[in-house]
Amino acid sequence: MSTFVVKLLQRSQLSHSQKDVKPFIYVRSNWMDDEAEFDFLSTTDNQNYRGSLKYEELRTAASDLELSYDAFFAECKNAMTTHMGVQGFDYELEDGEQQFFKMYKCEGYETLYLEVPLRKVSNCYQLLDAAIEAGQQKPQAASAAESHDQKTTSLAEYEKYVKESKLKEEELLKKFLLLINSKKAHIRDLESQLEERSKKSSKGKKNKRTSTDEEEDEAFGAPTQAMNIDKDSD
């Protein structure tokens, strides 16, 4: 069982002499297991009405409109329990020999969705009681909603923190890898330079040895000079 108190805009047709005053309908709806009870208060004449609707009648209406009962029921309940009504729906209190509350769905043409037979009542105590109860329940609902919002916010902040931490960790790892690769490249460059110098040094020593050997060979192969030995005269 769920109870709602809302204000709906009653549709009206204005003549040229009438002022554009928007009439409203205050509605208390009590959705039970097999039927819904309604209390209405019209701001046009301050008249109170009461009525009820069996869910079996909604099932018949859904069948006549060739609609799914569950979808039709949900759409009707939403249109009757949304403050200021749902766009695309018109609401009307018909006061004649027999009073009716009617709800139309307007999609280029009008389709009658609900027709609740009414009877006039002298007071709207049930509507006022329901409004008071709803007002008392709202702070609790708001607190629960705030608590849920806080939990959701905390969870979102934690997820954001984890995500940012992972991104920072990845950035540091990338910087570390770049530094390691730079050091490796520098070491390879130094090794290459050292190897080049070693080759040049080895080649220089080899060339020097070759030059020395050639000089020795040249000296060894040079023509022998006669040695002049002075003989002592007797």
Describe the overall structure.
The protein has a domain at 2-11 and 21-123: Dna Repair Protein Xrcc4, Chain: A, domain 1. A seven-stranded antiparallel sheet has the order 1-2-3-4-7-6-5. It has three helices and seven strands. Strand 3 and strand 4 form a beta hairpin. With 234 residues, it is of the alpha+beta class.
How many helical elements? Answer: 3
- The fourth-level CATH homologous superfamily of the domain at 2-11 and 21-123 is DNA double-strand break repair and VJ recombination XRCC4, N-terminal
Largest sheet: 7 strands, antiparallel
CATH class type of the domain at 2-11 and 21-123: Mainly Beta
Q: Please state the second-level CATH architecture of the domain at 2-11 and 21-123.
A: Beta Complex
Global geometry: rod-shaped
Tell me the series of helices and strands, N- to C-terminal: EEEEHHEEEH
Strand order of the largest sheet: 1-2-3-4-7-6-5
Q: How far apart, in Å, are the first and last alpha carbons?
A: 162 Å
E-strand count: 7
Radius of gyration: 51 Å
Percent range for β-strand residues:
15-25%
What share of residues is helical? Answer: 40-55%
Mean pLDDT across every amino acid position: 80
Low-confidence stretches: none
Under CATH, the topology of the domain at 2-11 and 21-123 can be stated as: Dna Repair Protein Xrcc4, Chain: A, domain 1
Structural class: alpha+beta
